[in-house]
Write a structure and sequence with these properties.
It is built from 12 helices and 13 strands. It has 469 residues and is an alpha/beta fold. It folds into 3 domains: 1-59, no CATH class; 77-336, Type I PLP-dependent aspartate aminotransferase-like (Major domain) (Aspartate Aminotransferase, domain 2); 357-464, Aspartate Aminotransferase, domain 1 (Alpha-Beta Complex), CATH 3.90.1150.160. The two termini are 15 Å apart. The structure holds pyridoxal-5'-phosphate (PLP).
């Protein structure tokens, strides 16, 4: 939940349309409801609906949101199933055994998709999203390291650390803060915007619980070289005896690469990869809140982290941060797997990648911009202003595109490329070639005005975009 502690700015009550108030002969509202306190008296459901509905009209159009990786459209049949399941609590395995079974099948399908050596031996669970899945995977890494170091942990000398690229999503910084693990981050260097395998191996020591590799990077859509990372860690083991496991954060890419980059080896085919997460609600094509975490076998997930809930008179192992959680998203995930199959997912992801590649190429044709990535890994690309462009910057572009309804985040890269600010476009299912053409046309129409600016106009770069990793 966001932490809302801002001072109240607007003490006026909600404004009530006369149709709901004095002009409504049947129980119209006589008093406008307050905004920040619960109203004293109830109101008619239709009135409450209208008030909430009207306020939500000011939200952006989710389909034009090119900032988010999260699914913004599903088929009506999926929506229907979700509506049918919205009252089911995922934790009530005993009451909803079929929902529990669909979750189990999804885990098996993912284990197979990600080449677990023995899919039947892989263990996994659904989560609210990748962040929770990463917390669980990180906890398993930490616990396994603590077991291996039982003789010296806890102690001052044994402070656990996790190695990752500086480009990781904020969930990994959260994990390290919440679970008291030192975050060791490999900086960006020159035109390398993600982790360098040898540099990552160089940061490992006897207190390293694992290394996180990202498929692909939130900053620019590039895949991190997971096989090279594993090879560098194999080398480390030969040299030093340190045997460091790898977790793959496949929030987006674990649902892209298996379909459109089948030859790329990044998953459980690499023996060093012990766990993988993905967001069902990103390229898994389900509305938000579902994620998945899988471990290659039971050894990779310490038994003491597993809790048991009642299930058909027996007990079922669970691993989650929350207790209650909606079952509808898990059902929708199963629907998508069943409905699309491998060929369907391939068609959807390939289409997104074609759109990304086409739009990136079109933007690359403008002299004003320089592409950092081309949308040929995740269907996501980042671009910046070309050298010599001084009239405007990426923050101006983001602000002006928003006037046309396009939400395109602009942000500054982390260490050692703080000098670089970029725009990022995420192409998802539903962002068609036609919409991409409109995007390029709107950008082309804006450019003459931007070129005439005396200098970049956005002063508060942090306020310029609501986008934070
Ligand atoms: C690489 C990566 N990891 C983790 C996350 C967090 O995922 P979620 O929003 O599902 O919690 C994201 C979100 O963009 C991501 O890109």
């Amino acid at each position: 939940m966001p932490l809302h502690n801002a001072p109240r700015r607007d003490e006026r009550p909600l404004s009530v349309n006369p149709f709901l108030g004095p002009a409504n002969p049947v129980g119209g509202m006589t008093e406008a409801p307050p905004k920040h306190r619960m109203p004293g008296a109830p109101m008619a459901p239709a009135t409450a609906y209208q008030l909430v509905h009207d306020e939500l009209m000011l939200d952006g159009n989710a389909r034009l949101n090119l900032a988010t990786f999260v699914t913004t459209w599903m088929e009506p049949e999926a929506g229907r199933l979700m509506a049918e399941c919205r009252d089911k609590n995922m934790i009530d395995k005993d009451e909803y055994p079929r929902t529990a079974e669909l979750e189990r099948r999804c885990v098996s399908m993912l284990a197979d998709l990600w080449h677990a050596p023995d899919p039947a031996a892989a263990v996994g669970c659904s989560t609210t999203g990748s962040s929770e899945a990463c917390m669980l995977a990180g906890m398993a890494l930490k616990r396994r390291w603590a077991r291996r170091n039982a003789g010296r942990y806890p102690s001052k000398e044994a402070r656990p650390n996790l190695v990752m690229g500086v480009n990781v999503q904020v969930c990994w910084e959260k994990f390290c803060t919440f679970w008291e693990v030192e975050a060791r981050q490999v900086p960006m260097e020159g035109d390398r915007f993600h982790l360098d395998p040898e540099a990552a191996a160089g940061m490992c020591d006897e207190n390293t619980i694992g290394v996180v590799g990202v498929m692909g990077s939130t900053f620019d859509g590039s895949y991190e070289p997971i096989a090279d990372l594993c090879a560098a860690l194999d080398g480390l083991r030969e040299r030093t005896g340190l045997d460091v496991p790898v977790h793959v954060d496949g929030a987006s890419g674990a649902m892209v690469a298996p379909f459109v980059d089948e030859d790329l080896v990044w998953d459980f085919r690499l023996p060093r990869v012990t766990s993988i997460n993905t967001s069902g609600h990103k390229y898994g094509l389900v509305y938000p809140g579902v994620g998945w975490a899988l471990w290659r076998d039971a050894d990779a997930l310490p038994e003491e982290l597993v809790f048991r809930v009642n299930y058909l008179g027996g007990d079922m192992p669970t691993f989650a941060l929350n207790f209650s959680r909606p079952g509808a998203q898990v059902v929708a995930q199963y629907y998508s797997f069943l409905r699309l199959g491998r060929d369907g997912y391939r068609a959807v992801q390939q289409a997104a990648r074609d759109v990304a590649g086409g739009l990136a190429a079109r933007i690359g044709e403008f002299d004003d911009f320089r592409l950092l990535t081309r949308g040929d890994e995740l269907p996501v690309f980042a671009f910046t202003t070309a050298p010599g462009v001084s009239a405007f910057d990426v923050f101006d572009v983001s602000r002006r595109m928003r006037e046309h309804g396009w939400l395109v985040p602009a942000y500054t890269f982390p260490a050692n490329r703080e000098d670089l600010s970029v725009l990022r476009v995420v192409c998802r299912n539903g962002f068609s070639e036609d919409l991409a053409a409109l995007f390029a046309e709107d950008l082309a129409r804006l450019l003459p005005e931007l070129r005439r600016q005396p200098h970049p106009l956005v002063r508060d770069k942090n306020a310029a975009t609501g986008f934070h990793h």
